[in-house]
Design brief:
This protein is of the alpha/beta class and 346 residues long. The protein has eleven helices and 16 strands. Strands 13-12-11-14-15-16 form a six-stranded parallel beta sheet, sandwiched between helices.
């Protein structure tokens, strides 16, 4: 596989929804997707463009450089059927137009939205509604789409694909897989959003919730203190007013979840951290000085936490950037969460 960070799943799913809407209206349609890139390609692998038979389109595969050519090829395929893989080299002068310092190359797979494509894309939207990690698998030579959900085999896909697809889902990396059967298959990852569970509706949490949302995380702020966890203080943020242990048991943190405890109150922080380090969360952080962290670890150890699980706690929380204000501390926390996610193998 040639791994690449997956394109924004929400954008791609909006494009798919638009395409299915056109099909519902009786329009012909085609789907185009970026399957490989080299250099400073303006759009990531997995980016989608949908085109209908009236030349209307949604999404983007290049930020404007090659859209015209892709739309033209799509219109031909809507009429004739079939599929095609297009390769483009983006010249330096065109790259500048989309904000790049240099050009790049990309491959775009284009196919008419046939009945198998529609069925597979509808399954993908259903998986998204259920918040299930899913991978769209396309045989680039045979134009056969399939969908696999995490932990399940894709119908019609060879058994050897299971391991690389599982790895793609774990790492959020879309890309092309060259198979032992000589076929090339593109795997587009559609994972549900990452989550950030924040314990303690304190001032830092207000800034952290905004930063996390801007970074693409679904945010839940947990605090049983009604005067703190209010819609006025956290507009548009999901609030959970249960005690942290109960809330985390219900929210079921998984490998796409980060947990940050900010209350500075052992009655809230300790149960939250105890549940967090026993979960699959990829990041666990806790506010407090080194002295506070030492006391907290001793309390959790006395309750049975192992040294290995306690080592999972990032504390003092956040990257050391000299942060002082609540907003700066929130920035340092969010930076450490992103680093834990993106540099996990580094």
């Amino acid at each position: 596989m040639l791994p690449s960070p997956a394109a924004d799943a929400a954008d791609a799913l909006a494009v798919i929804g638009r395409l299915i809407g056109w099909l519902d209206e009786g329009r012909g349609a085609a789907v185009a997707m970026v399957v490989e890139t080299w250099g400073s390609s303006p759009r990531p692998v997995g980016s989608l463009l949908a085109v209908n038979d009236r030349s209307a389109f949604a999404g983007s595969v290049s930020g404007g450089c090659v859209e015209g050519a892709v739309v033209a090829e799509s219109l031909d395929l809507i009429k004739a059927g079939g599929h095609k893989t297009l390769e483009f080299g983006i010249a330096d002068e065109d790259a500048w137009k989309v904000g790049l310092a240099c050009g790049g190359r990309l491959k775009v797979f284009v196919a008419g939205a046939s009945a198998p494509w529609r069925a597979t894309l509808e399954q993908l939207l259903a998986a998204r509604r259920d918040k299930r990690p899913a991978a769209l698998i396309v045989d680039l030579q045979q134009n056969t789409p399939a969908l696999t959900l995490e932990g399940a085999a894709a119908a019609g896909a060879p058994a050897w694909l299971a391991a690389p697809v599982a790895d793609a889902l774990r790492s959020d990396a879309s890309g092309v897989i060259d198979g032992p059967d000589g076929a090339r298959r593109f795997v587009a990852v559609f994972n549900p959003p990452l989550r950030l569970l924040v314990v303690g509706a304190v001032h830092i949490a207000q800034s952290l919730a905004r930063l996390a949302a801007e970074t693409g995380f679904e945010v839940v702020v947990i605090d049983p203190r009604g005067a703190w966890a209010t819609a006025d203080r956290f507009p548009g943020v999901a609030l959970d007013k249960r005690w942290p242990g109960e809330a985390l048991a219900a929210l079921k943190p998984d490998r796409r979840t980060a947990i940050v405890s900010l209350s500075h109150d052992p009655k809230l922080d300790d149960p939250a951290l105890k549940a967090a380090i026993a979960s699959d969360a990829f990041y666990v952080g806790a506010l407090g000085s080194r002295r506070t962290q030492d006391k907290r670890r001793r309390r959790l150890k006395a309750e049975g936490a192992s040294a290995e699980s306690l080592a999972r706690i990032h504390g003092p929380v956040g990257l050391d950037i000299g942060a002082r204000t609540p907003a700066e501390i929130a920035l340092s926390i969010m930076a450490e969460v992103v680093a834990a996610r993106r540099l996990a193998k580094g």
